[in-house]
Amino acid sequence: MASNSQPPSQTVGPEYRPAGLKPIATVSTPLSQKNVHILPQTPQLIALLTMIRDRNTGRADFIFYSNRIIRLLVEEGLNHLPVVGQEVSTPVGRSYAGVKFEGKICGVSIMRAGESMEQGLRDCCRSVRIGKILIQRDEETSKPKLYYDKLPEDIADRWVLLLDPMLATGGSALMAIEVLRSRGVPEDRILFLNLIASPEGAKNFADRFPKVRVVTAFVDAGLDEKNWIVPGLGDFGDRFYTM
Ligand code: URA
């Protein structure tokens, strides 16, 4: 069923500016699910999202600004990975108590739109392994169907960053988690990175897999009668790859 609740608005701008001089913008719908992490609604993020939502933004700019948001998502996703203490010596002869990442990771993109997020992951994690899953709606049953998957052999020993920019009903993402679980990946080692989610898709997904962490830039107002996210940005894959 179509939904379109009123999302929250707030003033957006740097702290030094008086509230009366800041524009009011729509920000992410908050969700109570503890496993959904919404990026801080900073002026920068809202400006980037404004660019990619604009129907008049051409493909080159769409790619450029999407990549900047993807980078923020990957950096935030990496904060959820475990670290261990690591002490190093600096060039001035002092020691510094820091940390380093523990464990192996891989990316898994849900084709085709999820492939747009692979470069952002590679930019942060050099020579990261990346698997792929193709899920499409079955014409006869209208249910999501798995058509193809190619995943690292040792995926069960890795943390998995699952990549899909748009979470509408959540059907594909739910099926992708089932595929990962069937390969032995524990739920609590999966991070789902996503640019824009619908509230119903995000809630459905987060309730069904409470140990999977979702990192999203924005939860929108809802879905329309054709299951487009609204206000959304249209078809992400078309705008990134073909328009
Ligand atoms: N996929 C998209 O690309 N856009 C939507 O609005 C929903 C799913």
TrEMBL record:
The cofactors it requires, by name, are:
Mg(2+)
Entry protein name: uracil phosphoribosyltransferase
Residue stretches in coiled coil: none
- The enzyme's E.C. designation: 2.4.2.9
List the molecular function annotations (GO) for this entry. Answer: GTP binding; uracil phosphoribosyltransferase activity
Pfam families in the cross-refs: UPRTase
Give the UniProt keywords, A-Z. Allosteric enzyme, Glycosyltransferase, GTP-binding, Nucleotide-binding, Transferase
Q: In which pathway does it act?
A: Pyrimidine metabolism; UMP biosynthesis via salvage pathway; UMP from uracil: step 1/1
Q: Does the keyword Transferase apply?
A: yes
Under which main EC class is this enzyme filed?
transferase
